[in-house]
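Figure S7 source data.
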Amino acid sequence: MELVNKRIAEYTESFTTEEPEIVKRLIRASEKNLEHTDMLSGRQTGLLLKLLVQISGAKRVLDVGTFTGYSALMMAGVLPENGELITIEMNSRYREISDGFFSKEPYRSKIRQIMGNALEVIPGLEGNFDLVYLDADKISYPEYWKMIRKKTISGSLIVLDNMLWDGMVLNAKEGKEYAIHKTSELIRDDDEVDQLMLPLRDGVTVVRVK
Ligand SMILES: C[S@@+](CC[C@H](N)C(=O)[O-])C[C@H]1O[C@@H](n2cnc3c(N)ncnc32)[C@H](O)[C@@H]1O
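Tokens for the predicted S-adenosylmethionine complex:
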């Protein structure tokens, strides 16, 4: 399903600030080394994340689903000097690419990558997060939502990607689309948060804990 008219999507992207040079290099490295790069969050979601970090003054960020590091670089690039971004990835193939970027300053002192299953890693993380970006396996979104809520406090932001899942959430009965739809319902039924679902790319939901 075409969620946003193609020409409108291109037009809005053309009036969205380009990524910093290092992130453009990461995109090129991903395209050179991988057959598929459609998992990259993309310029508009990337800019949204960057702006949310800046506007909220977030110091501690959790990035669930690193892939090659696009969202991590976009957010870590605007964290304060004492800021920290933890990013979780289970596929070591992507690490070969992300490491080359995460090892450069100022990212080196801000980004901590944890390799492993995020479902097992998140409950063991200490402290709370000012901003969490969820972009890992969709079937587990309801579980992620519950564990992430335990790591957030008043004022925290949670951003979830792919919340429209190519429009399939409209008739969701099973599978990933049902898990995503269920997550939107869980968020809706949580009295302690405000949620805004944006028809941006594949659907982006922004949540703020009251
Ligand atoms: C859509 S991509 C993330 C894109 C990334 N945020 C970006 O901006 O480019 C999803 C990533 O989550 C990883 N992933 C999926 N399930 C996971 C899990 N249970 N634990 C850790 N990583 C997982 C996948 O290997 C994949 O790299």
